[in-house]
Design a protein that fits this description.
By secondary structure, this protein is an alpha+beta fold. It is about 30% helix and about 25% strand.
Length: about 210
């Protein structure tokens, strides 16, 4: 799932559609969109389409809570978890994959809060604390929010008009000078404001 398309960018710039013969080409614009998708993910700490994280390491907190049975939790680096494919816990000599060897349920050995990206362990005391867990999971939104699409369009448009020396093709093959300096500043501020609203908080184990 892409955050925006080259057609969205051409519509935003109010110019002829990009194609294999335009300058820039539709492929160049699509590649630029991919660059800004990665930027948005890095800036917000979240993904607005499905992403897979492999072997994300975590340490058990040194201060452990008890609710009747022994319980401890770890906070994943992302939220909106759609699935956990591996939950490996170090037992002092080997990794044990709780997905295949333990029971996942609120009354079992472990469970997770998909919305907030928290894994809870129940009745399982970790052998060691430091980097004792590694998790492979999938996260991200099921659809791209309209404002994130808008941010991606604006960031891509900035790169396009800046990278091509602020000249735009009319669709007839001719290039005309365009002064986008004021618009670039506005677009960048709009995009930054959108990304700030979507930034994730990072939990630090205590």
């Amino acid at each position: 799932m892409v955050y925006c398309t080259h057609g969205d960018v051409s519509d935003f710039l109010q110019r002829a559609v990009f194609s294999g013969s335009t300058n820039p080409t539709s492929t160049q614009v699509t590649n630029e969109v991919a660059v800004w998708e990665a930027f948005i993910d890095n800036e917000t700490g979240h993904a607005f389409s499905s992403r897979t994280i492999t072997d994300e390491y975590h340490s058990f907190p040194t201060t452990m809570r008890k609710f009747g049975l022994f319980e401890v939790h770890i906070n994943l680096n992302h939220r909106q978890i759609s699935g956990i494919t591996a939950l490996n816990v170090w037992d002092g000599s080997t990794w044990e994959n709780f997905v295949s060897t333990r029971t996942e349920s609120r009354n079992g050995d472990w469970w997770y809060d998909a919305s907030d990206g928290i894994i809870f362990f129940r009745g399982v005391k970790p052998f060691i604390n430091e980097f004792a867990v590694k998790v492979t999971y999938t996260y991200g939104d099921s659809s791209v929010p309209a404002d994130i699409k808008g941010a991606c369009v604006r960031l891509t448009a900035i790169a396009i008009v800046s990278g091509f020396h602020q000249q735009m093709e009319l669709g007839t093959g001719s290039m005309i000078p365009m002064d986008f300096s004021a618009k670039i500043e506005t677009w960048r501020k709009q995009a930054d404001d959108i990304l700030k609203r979507h930034m994730e908080a990072m939990f630090v184990p205590m």
